[in-house]
Design brief:
heterodimer; A: 497 residues; alpha+beta; seven-stranded antiparallel sheet; 18 helices; 18% strand; B: 359 residues; eight-stranded antiparallel sheet; five-stranded antiparallel sheet; globular
């Protein structure tokens, strides 16, 4: 019996039955799960190292049902954790033992497609890729494309402000949504944003995006659709040194071209993926860059020449331009399969999401390699070089005693390094439970206090996903104290104002 | 870091001190830069906090596509620093006067002709330093393209009209200046112009600005020489010279349309909306998304009409500045606004009543 199951005490069983019975007055019988075996699939999200059984799982399929759940939970002061497809990587949808897990999985319909205004109105459980699939025949697509796009839901994308391969040119989720329908903690339904290009009052749309389920329950999203570029070409360049590949990123930007995508993989990552998907990568190179240029055929032809020149001046050892659409897809397939490929060469892996100024890429990758050696752990790097968003994958074996703990500690150190060089602990995966301690490094006590005050403006009793994303000051004090005990204050030279 | 050609002064501490004292004494404050946008928002009074002295480019890395500057920096100075390196602000903000500052531009959330094609002011804001109502200087966001640590307070500040805090510093994503720009004019009635603009927006054509007035549609194209030539062949019309002047006159409201004393309304509607039926003169921008209306019609009439279209109306210039100038908010949304105001400015000292009467 797992630890989570043991924690189901008699007391909570009674509580569970009482609340389940009450909620069934508002929801269909099968939409309230209260049996341990039914709750089990919801005990974790994409960050499977953390697991907890929720008190209950509810699966509403109408906005009125979500409102009823929220009204009941607000009255009973039961915390609520919203969940989309459960693919998040930071534990944002990790249940609370005393809380209701609110799954939006049944909200899976595309409600309306408006090709004149280039928008789609969708329910939160719709898969990211399904939006593009629904409009591609008309010549449109939805731009943010996290690598989990075949599975992740658009509601979760909004909650996490998801990114993807094409952010530098086409933006994050926050740049590609227009309007939300939100159920507040009290069960009221409000509209945020509009069908126009802006709306009156504060930019609550920006505030909701990336708020990790802490401010409201998103029940409908209007997304922007973009015309599919007529032409897209991919250049793949090899480098003998990681540092040179890092510098080439800045050299490409300096040409005045914003590539549609600009990705980097180091040798460990290319070897792992090459064995897996045979994408045709140069496995002898220390690093490869994948640079996609899109636009009208005329623009792309111009841009290809200029980027090729920049890469040559940056000292690349080899350049290949995908011959046709099939080869372009093949080159991308390796990048998109990098995470599962890491899973083939190591029993477990831990993905990190720090973002740094691009000019620091070479230096930070070198330092990460050194730190990996210090901890005796392998680190593969595959990431969004264009926007400085690193995804170091620490390879470990969870069955070896102490290895997960060492991995998490190394991960924390890498995030602190990102903050040290002027970056952030999370570019697109969110803080969740995973990076909550590193928030203490990135933000001052006043800033964290301001975040808490902001949350209470939406959720005065702190019932929405409590304990995630923003640490309490006492937690930060403990985190700091823990490291002082080990005789090492975290980055004493960093400003803490 | 690039050397800044403009006075470089950090008075953040002084500003914090002013705010702290005002908070303890309950003195209302009026945050201002060069006060070039005094016409905008509701009438609001208070002790003036002049942010102009807090100025200068803090850092500029062209290869990072990021510039960070203090709020008092003149927009014109910022633009020229970037132009030297072949870059620009992608949201093409209007100044409305020579002295306009970065802080005022961000606080008003103004964007120019490029907005529907490149993004709005809020889309380019990566980070801010903000002084809250307790006089605490705080940093949100950062200087990197992607950052989801903490709530997006930086974007919340854009367009908040200084009601939530003093914007002290802003980091912005910048864009390369397009290799070439060209403008064509087509003779089109308003219904056809709206239809065409939205058709083009749904195709991969490098349109970077649109304006319809008096049965003429102006379309700006930005990109490479070849890309523009191909687009011009596709959309037709006559090439127009003095291109920069035309778009500047639209952006800065110096075009003849903006002359006169009638109240000027800004209508923000779904781009493909049909022409509105209200009496008055109309100039349309942003692919149909932003419509300027000079009219004597009542606020109630205008708001009801625009709300039906799924948009909102702002009394931009003139008219009665003591009643509501922005579209009234739904009660639930208004409550969130009040709560946010209290979360950032508990003593309610910042620009009270500038946005809505309540706060």
């Amino acid at each position: 019996m797992s630890r989570a199951a043991e924690s189901v005490t008699r007391g909570s069983r009674v509580e569970r039955e009482t609340h389940a019975k009450a909620l069934r007055a508002w929801l269909p019988q099968h939409a309230v799960l209260d049996q341990v075996e039914e709750l089990r699939p919801y005990e974790c999200d994409g960050l499977s190292a953390y697991r907890k059984l929720p008190l209950l799982v509810v699966l509403p399929d109408a906005v009125e049902q979500v409102q009823a759940v929220m009204r009941y939970c607000a009255r009973q002061q039961i915390p609520v954790v919203a969940r989309g497809a459960g693919t998040g990587l930071s534990g944002g949808a990790l249940p609370l033992e005393n809380g209701v897990l609110l799954s939006l999985a049944k909200f899976n319909r595309i409600l309306d497609i408006d090709l004149v205004n280039r928008t789609a109105r969708v329910q939160p459980g719709v898969r990211n890729l399904a939006i593009t699939e629904a409009v591609s025949a008309s010549g449109f697509y939805y731009a943010p494309d996290p690598s989990s796009q075949i599975a992740c839901s658009i509601g979760g994308n909004v909650a996490e402000n998801a990114g993807g391969l094409h952010c530098l040119k086409y933006g994050l989720t926050v740049h590609n949504i227009m309007k939300l329908q939100v159920v507040t903690v009290n069960g009221d339904l409000i509209t945020i944003g509009s069908d126009g290009l802006d709306s009156p009052g504060y930019d609550l749309l920006a505030l909701m995006t990336g708020s990790e389920g802490m401010l409201g329950i998103i029940v409908e999203i209007t997304v922007r659709l973009l015309p599919t570029p007529e032409s897209a070409k991919l250049i793949m360049a090899s480098f003998a040194e990681v540092e040179k590949a890092g510098n080439a990123v800045g050299d490409i930007i300096a040409t005045g071209i914003i590539p549609g995508g600009l990705e980097m993989m180091d040798n460990m990552a290319t070897r792992a993926t090459e064995d897996f998907v045979h994408a045709g990568y140069d496995v002898d190179a220390a690093a490869i860059l994948l640079c996609e240029l899109d636009g009208t055929p005329e623009e792309v032809d111009d841009d290809i020449l200029r980027v090729k020149g920049a890469l040559q001046r940056s000292g690349c050892t080899d350049i290949r331009i995908a011959r046709d659409e099939q080869e372009r897809q093949l080159f991308w397939s390796g990048r998109k399969a990098a995470f599962p490929a890491a899973g083939r060469i190591s029993p477990d892996y831990y993905c990190i999401d720090g973002t740094i100024p691009r000019r620091q890429i070479g230096k930070v990758l070198t330092r990460i390699a050194e730190m990996g050696r210090e901890y005796g752990l392998r680190v593969a790097n595959v990431f969004h070089a264009g926007d400085g968003n690193l995804h170091p994958l620490i390879l470990y074996d969870g069955n070896k005693p102490g290895e997960l703990e060492r991995t998490e500690e190394l991960g924390g150190k890498i995030l602190e390094l990102c903050v040290e060089v002027g970056g952030t602990i999370t570019g697109e995966h969110g803080v969740g439970v995973e990076k909550i301690d590193q928030m203490c490094v990135q933000f001052s006590p006043q800033e964290l206090t301001q975040f808490h005050a902001l949350k209470r403006a939406f959720d005065p009793k702190e019932l929405l996903n409590p304990g995630k994303a923003v640490p309490t000051l006492s937690r930060c004090a403990e985190f700091g104290a823990m490291h002082v005990r080990k005789g090492e204050l975290k980055f004493p030279h960093l400003e803490r104002f | 870091m690039e050397p800044a050609s403009i006075p470089d002064k950090d008075i953040a501490e002084e500003l914090c001190h002013t705010v702290k004292r005002a908070a303890s004494e309950g003195t209302p404050l009026r945050i201002q830069g060069a006060d070039t946008k005094a016409f905008y928002g509701r009438h609001s009074e208070g002790l003036v906090v002049d942010v102009r002295a807090h100025s200068g480019v803090v850092s500029y890395e062209p290869s990072e596509l990021v510039i960070t500057a203090r709020a008092g920096t003149r927009l014109a100075d910022l633009k020229s620093v970037m132009a030297e390196r072949g870059q620009m602000l992608g949201f093409e903000p209007p100044s409305y006067a020579d002295d306009a500052t970065l802080g005022g531009t961000i606080a008003c959330g103004f964007s120019g002709p490029r907005r529907p094609y490149s993004g709005a002011a809020r889309d380019f804001v990566l980070g801010t330093r903000v002084i809250n109502g307790r006089g605490e200087l705080m940093r949100f966001g950062g200087q990197v393209m992607k950052n989801v640590a903490g709530y997006d307070v930086s974007r919340l500040m854009v367009g908040a009209l200084g009601t939530l805090g003093v914007i002290a510093e802003v980091s912005l994503k910048v864009l390369p200046i397009p290799a070439r720009e060209a403008t064509v004019r087509l003779s089109l009635r308003v219904e056809d112009a709206i239809r065409r603009m939205n058709e083009w927006a749904g195709q991969p054509i490098p349109v970077s600005a649109t304006c319809h007035y008096d049965d003429n549609l102006w379309v700006r194209l930005s990109g490479s020489e070849k890309g523009i030539a191909a687009a011009m062949a596709r959309i037709g019309g006559d090439a127009v010279d003095d291109v920069a002047d035309f778009w500047t006159s639209i952006r800065e409201h110096r075009h003849a349309f903006f002359d006169g004393v009638r109240p000027l309304w800004r209508l923000s509607v779904p781009q493909g909306s049909p022409p509105c039926s209200l009496d008055g003169d109309t100039l349309i921008e942003w692919g149909g998304g932003q419509r300027w209306l000079k009219t004597e019609a009542s606020a109630e009439t205008i708001r009801a009409d625009i709300a039906r279209m799924g948009g909102h109306a702002v009394l931009f210039r003139g008219g009665d500045r003591s009643s509501e100038v922005f579209q009234p908010l739904h009660p639930g949304v208004l409550e969130l606004h009040r709560n946010l105001k209290d979360a950032f400015d508990p003593e309610r000292i910042f620009n009270c009543g500038r946005m809505y009467e309540d706060f």
